[in-house]
Amino acid sequence: MPKLTETYARKLHQSNAGTQKHWDTEVKGFVLFVGKRSKTWYFQKDVGGQTKRILIGRYPTISAQAARQSALELSLEMGRGAGKHVQIGVPTLKAAMDTYLARPKLRSEAHKEGLRQQFEPPRVSERVKLSEDDPYGIE
For the structural domain made of 6-79, what CATH number should be given? Predict the structure, then answer.
């Protein structure tokens, strides 16, 4: 894997069979795709188990130096958490458990109670024994 430079990109010939990928040795994720008609700079990184590929631009419109700088900036941004999306509509553990426990053919009430005790946090009144002498459970 070579360092992707202006000279290296200029000397690469267009690909007749599919797209060739040329990875940079210095910036992890910085890649030049060479196809039949164009050469294109990308930054690619795995985020949350999925490959995210971000278009930087076409060569020679974007120089190797400018593309490298963009790849470095993208690497820093993704390292700080950019690209990670919160999944909207994903149920919480409580909502999923309530749905599961509402199923009509679940084993027994003892099974349901066992699951509740395992996954639900205990209530304050169950953790602290309150009395008339010590209403705040401090003793």
Answer: 3.30.160.390
Name 31's bridge partners. 23, 42
Tens digit of each residue's pLDDT (9 = 90 or more) over 63-112: 999 999 999 998 888 887 766 655 555 667 777 888 888 887 767 888 88
Q: Domain spans of the chain?
A: 6-79, 86-120
Burial class (CB in 10 A: 0-12, 13-18, 19+), 90: exposed
Which string of b and e fits 94-112 if b means at least 16 CB within 10 Å? eeebeeeeeeeeeeeeeeb
Task: Tell whether the torsion through CA atoms of 27, 83, 94 and 108 is positive or negative.
Answer: negative
Helix (H) or strand (E) holding 119: helix 109-119
- The answer to whether the predicted template modeling score (pTM) of the entire model surpasses 0.70 is no
Which residue in 35, 40, 37, 42 sits closest to 15, CA to CA? Answer: 35
Q: Residues 21, 33: contact at Cβ < 8 Å?
A: yes
**Residue 139 pLDDT more than 60?**
no
**72 vs 6: CA distance, rounded Å:** 17
Structure tokens at 55: 């278009």
